[in-house]
Every structure is written in C-alpha cells, then in structure tokens.
C-alpha cells in the first residue's frame, strides 16, 4: 500500500471514530439508534451559544456530553438567565433489572432527554420546600426552567414532538441514569389499540407543599408501578425489559430507579456556572406510603411562553391548566 492510500484510510478512520459520537448537526448510528436528536440553534436563541450534543456507545455504557443549551426557544421563567454548562452523563447501554428499587435523588439530575438536557425529579430544592414546580406554574412551555443558569426539565418536553409522536407508543423522551428509556405514556392493548398508561401516584394531600408528601403511591390505582414504569410493555420491537413513562401527573418521569444508575443518580461531571448536582433522600412520609385519593383535575398545568415552530417537524398539543391554586 502506498503512502497516499494509507493517509486516506487513516483520514477515513478518523472521520468514522469522531463522527460516530456526534449529534450536533448530524446524527451518528449510535445516537440514531437510541433516538437522540440532531440539535441545532433555535433562531430565537441568538443571544446564547449554539447547543452541542455528542453521544458515544462503547458496548457497555452510553456517554452523553452536552453544553445543556436547549434547541428550542428559551423563555426565562426564573430569575437566573440561561448559561452553557459542559455536562457529561453515562448510563448502561444494556440495562438490567436489579429486583429492587432505589430512590431517585431529591436534588439534581435523574435522567437526560434525547435533546441533551438534564431531567430533575418532580420537586424543587429543599430551600423551596420540595414543592412541585409544575403545579406552581414555574415551568416554561417545554416543561423546564433554569436554576442558577442550569436548564433542566421537571415534566415532559412536549415542544420537541408533534402531536402524532406524543401519542405513538415507543416514542423516546429520554433515558434514566439507570439506562432504561423514558417513553410517552402510550402502549398497545391486546387488541392492538393504542391506550394511555397512567401513574399510580395519587394526589392525596393537596394542603401539603412538599410534593412527595402531597402525593402517595397507591398500588394498582393506575397502570404503572411505583417507579412509574412497566416491565415488558406491549410495544412492537421494543428492545428493553422495562420502560419508564413520562406521565401527565406526578412523578412526571420516574418515582424511583429499577436498575443501577451509572452516575449514582444526580451526580454529573459538569463545568461552568450551573446548578450543583447531589444526592439526597426524599423527606419523610414521601415514597412508598399507601393511601386513597384522586390526582388534580385537568392533568398537566399552565405553562409559560409560546412553543417554537418546527423544532422536530411540528409542535405537540399542550394540556389544559389545573384548577386555580392546585397543589399549593
């Protein structure tokens, strides 16, 4: 082989290695298989740097690197403006059920979206009384906001999807840090019809501010288990033995982990000024208690701002607001 041919082969190999991890502008095979998006800057976000997202699969782990900038219009809801934060999360590429459940962090990242952004649990920070930011109308039109400049979601990012995608079983919203996917809340029943699956957490104590105390898990009151998921959901060609579902009501994403979180849950490698990550235990009286009650009427509540056009081929349908004052 002559030197020029060898040089070309080396160059092509480099393109393969480095291109296989990138989803900024063009998706890789790894990212495409897992459902990650090709992120580009939203025209309305000209004041901020462009979003960056890369995904690497090594056969054991999936590593997602991002600057945590949304690829949809940023609408400032909290006092803190948006800042870029270089973040890195890893999760198992082939997750397995442990046979036990573990608590998600009370503060910090519990999962990631396919758009490269962090997902937090269903409550605010301890200094804010662990309140539900969704019921308090503290989230933008895509289910998120900033804390110290760090953007994160507390509820499903509907703005990234069309109405059809949001109602199609198997549409991937993100991945829990234990590696299991988070899906839109629909599966097929035994006749092949599409049916919605609902949370088994019930809104039993609306007078309490703490989100984990205001809601209680009531087995079989909905379709999903305590962690807000199902084993072997009825979705054709689904490659996992378990899935979480991004429901309209608490806990919105996960109520606990069924696998082992590679990053420990809530712990991330992060640079820049942003929300600190950490682990914690939910307040007493939260997860696992039994009780009776109904979730707040109207499902997901009021959101702030206007959805952008054409983020992922269109925009989803936003749900109606809850009753005034719902959830504290």
What is the topology?
Elements: H1 3-19, H2 29-34, E1 53-57, E2 61-66, E3 86-92, E4 109-113, E5 118-120, E6 144-147, E7 150-153, H3 163-166, E8 172-176, E9 181-183, E10 186-188, E11 194-196, E12 201-203, H4 211-214, E13 215-217, E14 229-231, E15 242-245, E16 269-271
Parallel strand pairs: 5-7, 9-15
Antiparallel strand pairs: 1-2, 2-3, 3-16, 4-5, 4-8, 6-7, 8-9, 10-11, 12-13, 14-15
Could you please describe the fold and organization of this structure?
With 328 residues, this protein is mainly beta. It has one domain (3-271). 9% of the residues lie in helices and 20% in strands. The protein has four helices and 16 strands. The protein has helices spanning 3-19, 29-34, 163-166, 211-214; strands spanning 53-57, 61-66, 86-92, 109-113, 118-120, 144-147, 150-153, 172-176, 181-183, 186-188, 194-196, 201-203, 215-217, 229-231, 242-245, 269-271. It has an eight-stranded mixed beta sheet, with no helix packed on it. It has a four-stranded antiparallel beta sheet with strand order 1-2-3-16, with no helix packed on it. The longest helix is centred in the first third of the chain and has 17 residues, at 3-19. It is globular. The termini are far apart.
